[in-house]
Structure formats: structure tokens, C-alpha cells
């Protein structure tokens, strides 16, 4: 599932194409994804100008004139595809159907493209989601945080409210492993398996350590590590492992910098060959793979 850096990267790509422009046409190609689209989605979005974007955890909010926001969640396999109207998808270039006119009519659709937005400056943005675990909804802009999907989320890890003191307070008394605690969206918003593994490695903290012991100095190391790994990943366009691509179709490159994730059996970058280091290990926690260096992480 795309995590915070991937969602942030996609949102920035959409903002570059859509912000300040008017949605002239909305095509809804099925009635639902994870849950039904609003029944009057096209009517409520068509003709509206895109004012701004906001990311909350792993959700994107496209703020429209008129006081509503289009909430988008990519789910497991969702991606946003932006291209000029009349330009076939890269996978479809060739003798496979007509090129569309300026409004996007008769364009060969991207496979599993369930929602299409066309703009007043000749662009189209499609929501592609083969597994249909994504979500789209409309919410009053003034009440975004009251939406059922956003209620109860913890602080944003790249904003000022995410401090060592706040994290210490959130972890105090938690007898779950620190890996599970950091995946709890009520503790901190937007983190997933990849970036928790990488942040724990940088902080030198074992994923098996009880969360309640990760206060004080350990919480300070965690906050710094989380911020660093997220910032670096956003700068690299996120991590492309399976389905994720940026809105322009390019891959993210942060997977080239993983220290531990997916590297079971490889040498630890910090202590290669230093006894008793035996390289990166993989364990399973709550059904998810965890990668770490037992020598470095305590």
C-alpha cells in the first residue's frame, strides 16, 4: 500500500496539473471502489475550480470552489494517471483504438481506470485501481477532519506537533512491540511497513522492543529518524515496489536506498562483517514482514 511519501508525491503531481484549473467533465465508470462513489459525484465536481490540495496521513484532499473536497485514497493498488487529453496511455501507444479529441472522448481507456477528470486546459486525470481497495468521497472542506476515514488519526510526522514529548506520551504504557505501535495510525499518521522498518533501523531500535520502553531519548531518536526517512523518500519520489508510480508515470527511486527493507540475508550497511553481525534478518510481526539488524538495533 502506498505510504506517506508515495501519497505526498502523487498529490504534488496532481497539484502541478490541476490546481487553479476547472474540472470540465467527470466520468464515473463504475459505481464503487471500496465503498460506493457519491451518487451525484459528477454533478458536484463538474464546473468547479481546484483551489488547493492537502494530504492527511495516506489520504489526499482536493479542495474545490464551492466548499467541498474530493477525498482520494489509493488503497492497495491505486494510482493516479495524468496526461494530456487525446494522448493514449503509454501502455496503449500503437494501433489500439482512436486518439481522443480535446475533451477526452473516444480515448482508449487505461485498464481499470474507474474515474476520469477532464480540465479546462486540456488535461485528464484517471484513477486506476485494479484491486479496487481505493476510495473516493466528497466531504465539506471545513469538516475534512470529521470524515469517518480521518477521525482519530495521530499527528503528521513532518509537522511540528510530532515531537519526542508527544511520541513519548503516546507510547507510555503500551506493551505492544514498537513496530506495531508505529503502524497504529492513531499514534502517528501515514507510516506503513516500509518506513517503520527503515526508521527503526536508523534509530537503532529493535522492532521487538516494547513500545513503552521507547520514550525519552529513544523517542527523540525515533522522531528524527522518521522525519529523515520520510523527507528523503519524498525527495526521491517515493518507493516503487509493485503498483506505485507517480502521477506522471515515472517510478519512485527510494527503494534503491533501503537499508533493511527487503534485504534479508544481506550485510548490514552499518556493520558488514563485524562480529556478531550476521546481516539483515526477517521476522513476521502481526502478519507483516519486519527487516532489521539484530546487532545494530537493540
TrEMBL record:
The active site is at residues 2-3, 58, 288. Residues 86-105 are annotated as: Disordered. Binds 1 zinc ion per subunit. Its EC number is 3.2.2.23, 4.2.99.18. Keywords: DNA damage, DNA repair, DNA-binding, Glycosidase, Hydrolase, Lyase, Metal-binding, Multifunctional enzyme, Zinc, Zinc-finger. Involved in base excision repair of DNA damaged by oxidation or by mutagenic agents. Acts as DNA glycosylase that recognizes and removes damaged bases. Has a preference for oxidized purines, such as 7,8-dihydro-8-oxoguanine (8-oxoG). Has AP (apurinic/apyrimidinic) lyase activity and introduces nicks in the DNA strand. Cleaves the DNA backbone by beta-delta elimination to generate a single-strand break at the site of the removed base with both 3'- and 5'-phosphates. Monomer. Belongs to the FPG family. This is Formamidopyrimidine-DNA glycosylase.
Amino acid at each position: 500500500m502506498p505510504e506517506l511519501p508515495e501519497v505526498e508525491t502523487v498529490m504534488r503531481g496532481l497539484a502541478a496539473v490541476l490546481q487553479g484549473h476547472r474540472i470540465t467533465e467527470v466520468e464515473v465508470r463504475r459505481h464503487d471502489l471500496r465503498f460506493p462513489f457519491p451518487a451525484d459525484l459528477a454533478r458536484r465536481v463538474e464546473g468547479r475550480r481546484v483551489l488547493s490540495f492537502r494530504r492527511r496521513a495516506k489520504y489526499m484532499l482536493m479542495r474545490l470552489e464551492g466548499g467541498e473536497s474530493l477525498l482520494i485514497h489509493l488503497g492497495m493498488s491505486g494510482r493516479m494517471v495524468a496526461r494530456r487529453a487525446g494522448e493514449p496511455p503509454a501502455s496503449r501507444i500503437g494501433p489500439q483504438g482512436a486518439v481522443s479529441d480535446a475533451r477526452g472522448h473516444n480515448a482508449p481507456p487505461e485498464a481499470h481506470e474507474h474515474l476520469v477528470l477532464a480540465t479546462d486546459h486540456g488535461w485528464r486525470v484517471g484513477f486506476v485501481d485494479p484491486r479496487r481497495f481505493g476510495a473516493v468521497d466528497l466531504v465539506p472542506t471545513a469538516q475534512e477532519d470529521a470524515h469517518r476515514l480521518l477521525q482519530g488519526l495521530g499527528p503528521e510526522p513532518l509537522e511540528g506537533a510530532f515531537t519526542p514529548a508527544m511520541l513519548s506520551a503516546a507510547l507510555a504504557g503500551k506493551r505492544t512491540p514498537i513496530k506495531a505501535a508505529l503502524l497504529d495510525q492513531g499514534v502517528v499518521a501515514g507510516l506503513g511497513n516500509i518506513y517503520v522498518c527503515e526508521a527503526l533501523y536508523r534509530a537503532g531500535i529493535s522492532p521487538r522492543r516494547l513500545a513503552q520502553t521507547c520514550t525519552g531519548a529513544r523517542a527523540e531518536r525515533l522522531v528524527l529518524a522518521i522525519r529523515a526517512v520520510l523527507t528523503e523518500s519524498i525527495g526521491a519520489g517515493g518507493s516503487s515496489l509493485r503498483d506505485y508510480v507517480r502521477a506522471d508515470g515515472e517510478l519512485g527511486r527510494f527503494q534503491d536506498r533501503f537499508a533493511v527493507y527487503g534485504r534479508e540475508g544481506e550485510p548490514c550497511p552499518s556493520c558488514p562483517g563485524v562480529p556478531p553481525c550476521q546481516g539483515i534478518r526477517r521476522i513476521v510481526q502481526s502478519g507483516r514482514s519486519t527487516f532489521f539488524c539484530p546487532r545494530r538495533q537493540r
